Amino acid sequence: MENKKGHPQTAQNTHGDHNDNSAHTQRLVMLAAFKVKPSITTIEARRDLDILMPAARVFELRAMGYDIATIWTHGITERGRKHRIARYVFRQSAS
């Protein structure tokens, strides 16, 4: 029996617009952000890009062939708390 994860309708955007908050749209938003700034932290992705699970989006982009490195660092949240966070560095587009 084949085990598929996720909901089939969220796996791909069938609506033709990107005004939703689907995983597909979040990947597009993250790729566009990498063109402006080649590194994004988890805090920046959540606060500035409205991507609440940036690690999952990076995982999916890597599976699509994008070369994205993870550098572990520390950052301060808007509430002033220090956390160990990931900084994602875009290195190469998918072939």
UniProtKB/TrEMBL annotation:
<feature type="region of interest" description="Disordered">
    <location>
        <begin position="1"/>
        <end position="24"/>
    </location>
</feature>
<feature type="domain" description="Winged helix-turn-helix">
    <location>
        <begin position="25"/>
        <end position="91"/>
    </location>
</feature>
<dbReference type="Pfam" id="PF14090">
    <property type="entry name" value="HTH_39"/>
</dbReference>
<protein>
    <recommendedName>
        <fullName>Winged helix-turn-helix domain-containing protein</fullName>
    </recommendedName>
</protein>
<dbReference type="InterPro" id="IPR055245">
    <property type="entry name" value="HTH_proteobacteria"/>
</dbReference>
